Amino acid sequence: MSKIKRVVIVGGTHGNELTGIYLVKKFERSPHLIQRSSFESLTLIANPRAYAIGKRYVDTDLNRCFLRQDLENPNLSNYETQQAKIIYQTFGAQGSQQADFVIDLHTSTANMGLSIILGNENLLNIQLAAYLTSINPKVKVLYSTNKNQHRPHLDSICEFGCTLEVGAVAQNILNAALFQETEEIVHAILDYLEAYNQGNTPAVKDTLNVYHSIQTIDYPRNELGEIQAMIHPQLQFRDYQPLHPGEPIFLTFEGKEILYKGDSTVYPVFINEAAYYEKGIAMCITQLTHKNIT
Amino acid sequence: MSKIKRVVIVGGTHGNELTGIYLVKKFERSPHLIQRSSFESLTLIANPRAYAIGKRYVDTDLNRCFLRQDLENPNLSNYETQQAKIIYQTFGAQGSQQADFVIDLHTSTANMGLSIILGNENLLNIQLAAYLTSINPKVKVLYSTNKNQHRPHLDSICEFGCTLEVGAVAQNILNAALFQETEEIVHAILDYLEAYNQGNTPAVKDTLNVYHSIQTIDYPRNELGEIQAMIHPQLQFRDYQPLHPGEPIFLTFEGKEILYKGDSTVYPVFINEAAYYEKGIAMCITQLTHKNIT
Questions:
Q1: Nearest Cβ partner of A174 from B23, B179, B230?
Q2: ipTM of the complex
Q3: What is the pTM of this model?
């Protein structure tokens, strides 16, 4: 594999996820923090207008705007679709400042801990994720790959990179402990890429626990689309914990339990993410796999 | 004191605090739940447009629109100021459905537990608050009274009533456990008012712990108004816990601690409330007092 020449650290892809925004601002005040000898590090606040109004987005979710056909579609002209084109034309393939590696910083109201979300199975990405799990047991690795479809996420502008999803934290607030943990992960990634460029990556174990996203579950809704139940208290904040068939996942407003009807143990994530109510997602269901790294 | 004839239960004064909204919707589906023999119970979603867009408010914070001079000011005509006038003309003094008691349901990203916020020291309010603390140790009583000023809050439309502030919960999500605890408090209030009307209120202890709001503390900010520090990890989620002079309250993005400079032990609340960043409030400082009830 060729060396990494340019890294872009992105905050504020969602305007109400403050951790990435304030971390990028910090790096812009103190650029030496993200400098390494073998590559250039750039920063980006991806959705400044959404940040200005304290919302996830202005017109549409920026982190669903990066499908290649959408980036090439001149009829898509709202704020976020235009913003996505500018970002791709800057940092994407053949961009004016083409990046080799992207770190996209997010937070969640779900208890995602320190999640490394990978959009592809490139060896560098996987080995980096394995390294991060080895230095911090709170790190979990989540695959959002889909063999039959391209992904519309910002991190797809580069072959290498990841989305960092940190939580639980409410929208529009900063949690100092999670801010510091996020910053430590960014530094660990940059240090790893420096070692990679120098042919000196640290050894990691042969296998990696990977949570592979296989489906989503929506809230029970009535004919008007209104939700009729909440995440069950026994499931709340239990992201990445095993969920067995027959265990409760929802509680209706009238107090009736709704049980998980799957036929095997799964590992829900993004449980009760605020931004996913409108997307029809109460949780994402993952399977735990043990990936051979080499 | 005269009997309570009409109670209004309000949700959605802030459009992104879902617990009250979904609880009011439940009561509207099943009105028998809030019926009692000696008074009428009504419900209100106070800010439906803010709820529709998933925000605290459309134009301005509805829960700061109830000063009498503002309600009588014909020049105030944005959505929330108009909505406040309609609510006051309906449920306020001389209103078409004048209420004697208001329960305004809120949530907070701060760890407010089950807070009963009182805007005045009427004996019924205080005795009710004492009763609620006696049946649930999670209940805290917070005074937001101010002897020199009227209050702009919705609950000021009635002489009797309270604001219920529940947390920690992120904006735009439901937490099932807190939903159920909120509902239990509402039922306890209605049952207490029924007993009050029947001259049969339960006995409570002679003194009540009351947290009295005395000042607010803003985040450290630069000349542009941008915050320069976060709530210190040791203070996060420690609402109602004692804060001693010299203990850390903020942590700058560069990792420097900022200490509390007061000269006595206080009890911060609304620590890291998302909606208060724009109000210049990082926390509200309270003093703990022991109020004689009789």
A1: B230
A2: 0.94
A3: 0.95
